[in-house]
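Researcher: Structure prediction, please.
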Amino acid sequence: MGYYLADGIYPQWPVFLKMIRCPTDPKRAYFVQRQKAARKDMERAFGVLQARWAVVKGPTRLFYPECIADLMYACIIMHNMIVENEGAWVANWADEDAAGSTHGVARDPVQHGVPHGEAQRLRAFVSTR
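Model: Predicted structure follows.
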């Protein structure tokens, strides 16, 4: 049976593994260290997805669980595709505002989330056509 890393706000259920507050032996201290690292990695991953897609930010209590899983898989796959596509540009980043453009190719800044305002929405709609 799997478990979820959780903190003190969750109920006392067997699937929620809470942190050991004061580890007494080296084995438990190592476990706490690894658990903290795993929680930070997961929080960072969800933060990246929330920054990129507004649908991940919102409440999902009214969604079907299968739809939530499909939505998360789709967001993860699209994120990985975007990172793979932008890989060279992200790796060779330079301050374009100060230098003009990188490698002689001018690129528009990457926009994430939902455009706000009519002009931004229209510009985003026209650029996808």
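Model: The beta strands are 4-6, 16-18.
Researcher: Thanks, that helps.
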